[in-house]
Structures are given as C-alpha cells and as structure tokens.
C-alpha cells in the first residue's frame, strides 16, 4: 500500500505550499512511505485526483486543492482532515496503515 500525496509543485499560493510541506515533512519525519504526485506538471495526476476526491469532500467550486491524500485508490482526506488526525493521534488509522510496533495508538471510545 502506497500513500499518495497530491501536491502542486508550482503553486503560487503560500498557504497551499505550507500545507503541502507540513504533510510531506510529517510523513518523512515518521518514516511513512509515500509518493508525491505533482498535479501542476502532470495532467493525468490532476485529472485522477479531481475524479477521485469524493463529491462531499469537494469545495463548492468543485475543484479540490492540494494537498489531497490517498492510500492507493482509497481517499484519506485533505489537509484539514490530516491535521485533525495528527492532533488526535490517529494518523495511522486516517492513512489506513497499521501502526508500527510500540506506537501509542488512541482508539475511539
């Protein structure tokens, strides 16, 4: 299973760049394998991301902005969902991954 993070390498938005850096930095720091999928330079990546973000997760204009996170074909969420999962210490379940041995795992009560 591969985590795919859809990013725009040439985004003009500082806010988007910071969100992308936070997601990528967190995954790297926690040694979680992932692939960055550039939507700015690859039309196929952009089309795939837009088609696979669930309708209820798309903004009003219908165009989801990066970063968008998938586990293979399964949609995990956008930056806000990622941030919430990180804050609640449920990032592995958010990503659909088995936590490494010795990882503290919070479960819903």
Q: What do you see in this structure?
A:
This protein is an alpha+beta fold and 109 residues long. The protein has a single domain (3-95), classed as 3-Layer(aba) Sandwich (Glutaredoxin). Helices cover 37% and strands 17% of the residues. The chain is built from four helices and four strands. It has helices at residues 14-29, 43-52, 79-87, 91-95, and strands at residues 3-7, 34-38, 68-71, 74-78. The protein has a four-stranded mixed β-sheet, with helices on both faces. It starts with a strand and ends in a 14-residue tail after the last helix. The model has no long low-confidence stretch (mean pLDDT 91).
How would you summarize the topology of this molecule?
Layout: E1 3-7, H1 14-29, E2 34-38, H2 43-52, E3 68-71, E4 74-78, H3 79-87, H4 91-95
Parallel strand pairs: 1-2
Antiparallel strand pairs: 1-3, 3-4
């Amino acid at each position: 299973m591969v985590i795919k993070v859809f990013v725009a390498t040439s985004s003009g938005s500082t806010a988007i760049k910071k969100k992308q850096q936070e997601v990528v930095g967190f995954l790297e720091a926690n040694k979680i394998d992932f692939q960055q999928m550039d939507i700015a330079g690859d039309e196929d990546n952009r089309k795939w991301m837009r088609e696979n973000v669930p309708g209820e997760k798309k903004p009003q204009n219908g165009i989801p902005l990066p970063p968008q996170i998938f586990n293979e074909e399964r949609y995990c969420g956008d930056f806000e969902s990622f941030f919430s999962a990180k804050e609640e210490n449920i990032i592995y379940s958010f990503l659909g991954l088995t936590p490494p041995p010795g990882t503290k795992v919070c479960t819903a009560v």
